[in-house]
Amino acid sequence: QVQLVESGGGLVQAGGSLRLSCAASGIRFSYNRMGWYRQASGKQRELVAAITTGGSTNYVDSVKGRFTISRDNAKNTVYLQMNSLKPEDTAVYYCYAPARDLWGQGTQVTVSS
Question: Other CB atoms closer than 10 Å to residue 20's CB: what's the count?
C-alpha cells in the first residue's frame, strides 16, 4: 500500500518541543525527496522544510534555527524536530513526497501561549 503516515503531533506549551515522524510505505523512500508542510486555520498550506535524497535541507525562514528535518532511509521515515515552539506554529502538519505527489493524512500541532 502506497502511503505516508504521520505521527507525533499534540498540544505543547510555547517554548516546548515535539518530534514529528512520517513513515513511508509502497515507495522507494531513499530515492525520494521529502517535505513537511503545514496549514494553519484559514491560511494556505506552506512548505516548512525539505530534504533531498542526499540529505541537503532547506527551511522556511520562520523556522530556521528551531526546526530540523532528517531522514532514516533504513526505516523509511522522515522526521521533523521542532524546538522553541511558538503559538504561530499551530497548524496541521503534512508529510509530502513530491515525486509521487503523495500526501500524508496530517497531524495536528497546537502550541499554547
Answer: 25
- Measured at the CA of 6, the angle between CA 111 and CA 26, to 5 degrees, comes to 165
pLDDT, tens digit (0-9, with 9 covering 90-100), for 38-89: 999 999 999 999 999 999 999 999 999 999 999 999 999 999 999 999 999 9
Q: How far apart are CA 2 and CA 39, in angstroms?
A: 23
- Beta-strand relationship, 107-112 and 10-13: parallel
What are the C-alpha distances in Å from 39 to residues 2, 53, 76, 91? 23, 25, 24, 5
Instruction: Please measure the distance between the N-terminal and C-terminal CA atoms of the chain and give it in whole angstroms.
Output: 40
